[in-house]
Design goal:
69 residues, mainly alpha
């Protein structure tokens, strides 16, 4: 049986115009679109970058939204 693909998606799909990142998962549209065809290593590399991407988003856009710790 195929293994499930791990994803940071939290089903909050709003793209920030200034950065091009999803406010829910912090991935770019290109990353979101190609996620299922990426290798496990490619997905892991993106996942490792996600915490630092939060700093690129205007905090006012994240208030009241999902918070990652």
């Amino acid at each position: 049986m195929p293994r499930a693909v791990v994803t940071p998606c939290i089903k909050v799909c709003i793209v920030d115009g200034a950065t091009g990142l999803c406010l829910g998962c912090l991935r770019s549209l290109t990353e979101i679109g190609s996620w299922s065809s990426m290798t496990a290593d490619e997905r892991a590399a993106v996942m490792a970058e996600l915490p630092a991407r939060r700093d690129q988003i205007d905090p006012a856009k994240l208030e009241g939204g999902p918070q990652r710790t």
